[in-house]
Structures are given as structure tokens and as C-alpha cells.
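Quiz preparation item.
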């Protein structure tokens, strides 16, 4: 049986800050929204669109540490092919 993943409290807090920040990019907010929506929902998974946004956020040197934390959480919840 596969273990279900949920967003940690730390990652959810980071995602909340990213979503409220005016300086956060659209891609960072997309990834943060996905991570936050999975805080207490073990059955939810990250969509392909949100995973792409999370990947772009992680690769961007302009992304904040909090944006990268929430993006990493979203990516860990993307189902394997």
C-alpha cells in the first residue's frame, strides 16, 4: 500500500506567506496554492500544471526560500508515472 503524502505545517506556512506576498510570481503562487490545498488531504495530488509551476519556481534564482519550500512540497505530491 502506498503511503499518502500531505503538506507539512512548515511548508503550509511558507505557502501561505507566498500566496499573500505581492512580490511572489504567478508560478510561485500556483505551486504554493497546490501545496496548501494538500495540507490535510492525503488523497489529493499535484496536477501537471502545478508541478510545472513548482519546477520553474525551484529552478528560478529569483524565487524566495519560502517559495521554494512550498514548491518542493507540491512536487513531492506529484504521482509517479
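Solution:
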Amino acid at each position: 500500500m502506498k503511503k499518502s503524502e500531505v503538506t507539512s505545517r512548515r511548508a503550509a506556512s511558507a505557502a501561505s506567506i507566498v500566496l499573500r506576498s505581492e512580490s511572489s510570481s504567478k508560478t510561485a503562487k500556483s505551486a504554493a496554492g497546490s501545496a496548501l490545498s494538500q495540507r490535510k488531504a492525503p488523497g489529493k495530488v499535484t496536477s501537471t500544471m502545478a508541478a510545472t509551476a513548482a519546477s520553474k519556481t525551484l529552478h528560478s534564482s529569483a524565487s524566495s526560500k519560502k517559495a521554494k519550500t512550498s514548491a518542493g512540497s507540491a512536487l513531492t505530491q506529484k504521482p509517479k508515472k
